[in-house]
């Protein structure tokens, strides 16, 4: 088995599941539904692994139950993957829509990765932006060319991901506490190690549907922020950008292929 595909979907979100199912089946993509961990309305302190002090230090604010639930849902998918014999796992969120020809290009990307050194952990196939990016291989899509590259500054979205077994093992094995939303965690980790990849333009895009995992409008709220929230955020962003720039320069100068 080369790859397994998981679709994260909240119990009761039947319309989103139906839309995602139709979109994936239209391209011949089968999947296993994974019930999302529903953290909405749950006190964060009661959720497993939540580190409020760590969140205040790293994010400058406390986390919401929905954010912790999203993290735990992705952790569940990684654990499921490791229990299989598959080489790769594709993890999709139910608010995604595959672009035309996505299934074919995805298959070609997986085939190519299977023949390459294992110097990557996670590949983002749903990124809306591309920064600090080193192209590795082009794939012909429908009316466009999709570029697989080293994502030195790992994208901030989890709409569509490809795990390697090594990467999923590192995610699961390194998990001890939750001090950031899962997309922030992936950026911190993979920007530091330079073991992240991305496909641009993306193979899946968000449908624009409002998140059901987090409370409506929750990202616009300011509750839980520490007084120096803005400074903490800028320190985090510029630290990641500096590391990304270093890795891009290192590879451009012929540095080692492995990101550590």
From TrEMBL:
One Gene Ontology term of the molecular function aspect: transferase activity
Pfam families in alphabetical order: Glyco_transf_25
InterPro entries for the chain: Glyco_trans_25
Keywords associated with the record: Transferase
Keyword Transferase found: yes
Glycosyl transferase family domain mapped to chain residues: 5-96
Protein name, as recorded: Glycosyltransferase family 25 protein
Upper lineage: Bacteria, Pseudomonadati, Pseudomonadota, Alphaproteobacteria, Rhodobacterales
